[in-house]
């Protein structure tokens, strides 16, 4: 039996009439795509061009995203928070350079951090426990942890020292950096270093001695 595409299967099916419970004429709304969808489309084209050519039968199949079924509430939430343009994401990073400000806390809480993603990728079982652990950490106030507070108090000194010892570097603080495509993922690097055409992320670790005066 020759496989059929979705268009061939449903070509002659009559359109379903769905009862509109909220009285809104959806047919009057012009078709549009969000910036997120446009970026995803372009990225998919790049991936197809850069990868090895697949057999014709496989290439003729439709690309499906591995996303769960979402209700209207979840869809609206997703597009409200995870469909921002590059300019909006850049502005967000600039506004949250002073990490731990209110906007940084709110936007970070809406996303998986780079540390969360590492735990998910490395996990092999019991994902329910991991998700509960990640959600629990969302409500933690990091500055209440003495070691974290000590690190925050000394980060500027470390960045300044790195800049002094490496005059050819340009060192700056960073805010909340959101993944341009998977916008539910974000990171807060301790700094960004530019050296000519090269860029490096700075990760600062301050040794903390709880018994020190």
Provide structural commentary.
Residues 103-209 form the YqaJ viral recombinase domain. This is SWIM-type domain-containing protein. InterPro entries: NF-kappa-B_Signaling_Reg, PDDEXK-like_dom_sf, Restrct_endonuc-II-like, YqaJ_viral_recombinase. It comes from Trichonephila inaurata madagascariensis. The chain is mostly helical. It is 43% helix and 9% strand. It is built from nine helices and six strands, in the order ααααααβαααβββββ. The strands form two sheets. Strands 1-4-3 form a three-stranded mixed beta sheet. It has a three-stranded antiparallel beta sheet with strand order 2-5-6, with helices on one face. β3 and β4 form a beta hairpin. The radius of gyration is 23 Å and the shape is globular.
Summary keywords:
single chain; 9 helices; mainly alpha; 3-stranded antiparallel beta sheet; 3-stranded mixed beta sheet; 213 residues; 9% strand
Q: What's the total number of strands?
A: 6
User: Counting H and I runs of at least 4 residues, what is the number of helices?
Assistant: 9
Task: Note the run of SSEs as H and E.
Answer: HHHHHHEHHHEEEEE
Helix content: 40-55%
Content-based structural category: mainly alpha
* Anisotropy-based shape: globular
Give the radius of gyration: 23 Å
| Beta-strand content | 5-15%
Main β-sheet, in a few words? 3 strands, mixed
Write the layout of secondary structure elements.
Blueprint: H1 6-9, H2 35-50, H3 56-59, H4 72-81, H5 86-95, H6 102-109, E1 112-113, H7 114-122, H8 127-137, H9 146-165, E2 170-172, E3 177-178, E4 185-187, E5 191-195, E6 198-202
Parallel strand pairs: 1-4
Antiparallel strand pairs: 2-5, 3-4, 5-6
Domain YqaJ viral recombinase: 103-209
Protein name: SWIM-type domain-containing protein
InterPro entries: NF-kappa-B_Signaling_Reg, PDDEXK-like_dom_sf, Restrct_endonuc-II-like, YqaJ_viral_recombinase
């Amino acid at each position: 039996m020759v496989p059929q595409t979705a268009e061939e299967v449903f070509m002659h099916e009559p359109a379903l009439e769905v009862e509109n419970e909220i009285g809104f004429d959806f047919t009057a709304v012009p078709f549009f795509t969000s910036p997120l969808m446009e970026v995803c489309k372009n990225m998919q084209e790049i991936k197809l061009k850069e990868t090895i050519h697949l057999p014709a039968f496989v290439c003729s199949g439709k690309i499906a995203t591995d996303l769960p079924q979402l209700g209207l509430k979840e869809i609206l939430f997703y597009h409200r928070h995870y469909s921002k343009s590059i300019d909006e994401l850049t502005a967000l990073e600039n506004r949250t350079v002073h990490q731990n400000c209110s906007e940084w806390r709110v936007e970070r809480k809406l996303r998986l951090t780079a540390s969360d993603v590492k735990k998910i990728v490395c996990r092999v079982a019991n994902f329910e426990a991991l998700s509960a652990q990640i959600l629990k950490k969302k409500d933690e106030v990091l500055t209440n942890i003495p070691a974290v507070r000590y690190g925050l108090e000394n980060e500027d000194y470390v960045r300044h020292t790195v800049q002094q010892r490496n005059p050819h570097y340009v060192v700056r603080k960073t805010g909340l950096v959101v993944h341009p495509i998977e916008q539910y993922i974000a990171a807060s690097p301790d700094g960004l270093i530019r050296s000519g055409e090269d860029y490096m992320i700075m990760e600062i670790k301050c040794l903390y001695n709880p018994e020190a005066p």
